[in-house]
């Protein structure tokens, strides 16, 4: 059995990606299980570490304790959830599912689920470890995205996320702990994007560990093209406007580039009111005050079919992320036939074929983002870009394609 370990079940990009892979493996005939702190909805093969109110309270206390541990170290509130010290976590080494597993597959495991000590205990079992990297934390001294810092290429120290960067600060200590832990591990690292895989192969902690790139997967039967007019009528959205979607778990996370999106829409609507905006994700109404277009706030959507409807309602999705791995939003939108204008950062240029099925804009340029959005509006005649976008997803990210690549990796590890 392959056992997936993830902090989240159906929340956040990493949790969604992990769950989708688990489902894909089950549908492909693999024996797959998933262990998470808490199950959001009952699902085949997904198990919660917390099955009682007391266990759920303990899980919450671990999260609080983890953040409290970091509080004296943090530079300011902006980095509060951008750095994980992994000081607090559950020891799951003796959990029945862990004991039964032939392969342990790690995903995003921070925020009090697994600590460095927890990982050391798991590694000590000697079982093959596959670790899918959903950000940079695995090879840094604690940050999830480095924001341009390249200390991880040699040794993390003088960390810009910390209140008192020093030669032997918290990032140095975590880096050393990881180096010791990785030394004897039977481990393969998987990056969803080639961008991240290239960094993994250069980072000091991971350059000598087997690494490869395997994208996340998506259910192309669920995420598919629907009748746009019918969906808009159902959602009470205008039929005569170009609707541009912005989506993110937290729209106000600076990393997601909402300010660039706002500026780009202003440029496009300077002499027109043709464009209106859909916003999907956690936000507040006051964030749209003075926005240069009419905003339809869809809120945070958990239901998958409602998510499919939101993508189908849009003509374009804009993804001006300043740092990202392989965004689920791009994959989901393209599967629904919604072309993407996105910044040339992280794995985004791998997903969008420039001026073929979308537009890759210059990173950090609202002018270039506006140009990309306009290009898509001008060139998606007969939904030609939409068809090519969906074809790219079926070819590269469909469940059977990705499940087969992971199955080959698992077999190679078990044969060693």
TrEMBL record:
<feature type="domain" description="Glycosyl transferase family 1">
    <location>
        <begin position="227"/>
        <end position="380"/>
    </location>
</feature>
<dbReference type="Pfam" id="PF13439">
    <property type="entry name" value="Glyco_transf_4"/>
</dbReference>
<protein>
    <submittedName>
        <fullName>Glycosyltransferase</fullName>
    </submittedName>
</protein>
<keyword id="KW-0808">Transferase</keyword>
<dbReference type="GO" id="GO:0016757">
    <property type="term" value="F:glycosyltransferase activity"/>
</dbReference>
<dbReference type="Pfam" id="PF00534">
    <property type="entry name" value="Glycos_transf_1"/>
</dbReference>
<feature type="domain" description="Glycosyltransferase subfamily 4-like N-terminal">
    <location>
        <begin position="12"/>
        <end position="220"/>
    </location>
</feature>
<dbReference type="InterPro" id="IPR001296">
    <property type="entry name" value="Glyco_trans_1"/>
</dbReference>
<dbReference type="InterPro" id="IPR028098">
    <property type="entry name" value="Glyco_trans_4-like_N"/>
</dbReference>
């Amino acid at each position: 059995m392959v056992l997936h370990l993830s902090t989240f079940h159906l929340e956040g990009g990493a949790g969604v990606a992990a769950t989708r892979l688990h489902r894909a493996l089950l549908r492909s005939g693999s024996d797959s299980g998933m262990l998470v702190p808490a199950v959001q909805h009952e699902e085949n093969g997904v198990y919660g570490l917390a099955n009682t109110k007391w266990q759920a309270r303990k899980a919450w206390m671990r999260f609080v304790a983890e953040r409290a541990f970091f509080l004296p170290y943090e530079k300011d509130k902006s980095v509060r959830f951008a750095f994980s010290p992994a000081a607090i976590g559950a020891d799951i080494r003796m959990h029945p599912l862990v004991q039964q597993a032939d392969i342990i597959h790690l995903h995003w495991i921070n925020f009090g689920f697994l600590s460095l000590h927890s990982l050391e205990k798991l590694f000590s079992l000697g079982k093959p470890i596959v670790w899918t990297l959903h950000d940079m934390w695995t090879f840094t001294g604690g940050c999830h995205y480095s924001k341009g810092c390249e200390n991880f290429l040699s040794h993390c120290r003088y960390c810009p996320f910390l209140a008192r960067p020093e030669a032997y600060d918290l990032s140095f200590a975590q880096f050393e702990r990881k180096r010791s832990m990785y030394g004897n591990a039977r481990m393969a690292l998987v990056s969803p994007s080639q961008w991240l895989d290239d960094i993994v192969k250069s980072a000091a902690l991971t350059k000598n560990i087997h690494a490869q790139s395997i994208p996340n997967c998506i259910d192309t039967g669920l995420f598919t093209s629907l009748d746009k007019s019918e969906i808009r009528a159902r959602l009470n959205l205008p039929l005569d406007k170009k609707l541009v979607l912005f989506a993110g778990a937290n729209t106000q996370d600076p990393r997601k580039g909402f300010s660039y999106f706002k500026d780009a829409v202003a440029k496009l609507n300077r002499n027109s009111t043709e464009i209106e905006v859909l916003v999907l994700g956690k936000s507040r109404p006051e964030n749209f005050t003075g926005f240069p277009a009419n905003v339809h706030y869809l809120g945070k959507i958990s239901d998958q079919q409602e998510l499919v409807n939101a993508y189908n309602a849009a003509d374009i999705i804009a993804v001006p992320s300043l740092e990202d791995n392989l965004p689920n939003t791009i994959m989901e939108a393209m599967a629904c036939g919604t072309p993407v204008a996105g910044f040339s950062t992280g794995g985004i240029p791998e997903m969008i074929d420039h001026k073929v099925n979308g537009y890759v804009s210059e990173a950090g340029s609202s002018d270039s983002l506006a140009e990309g959005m306009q290009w898509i509006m001008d060139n998606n005649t007969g939904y030609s870009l939409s068809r090519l976008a969906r074809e790219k997803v079926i070819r590269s990210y469909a469940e059977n394609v990705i499940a087969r690549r992971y199955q080959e990796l698992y077999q190679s590890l078990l044969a060693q």
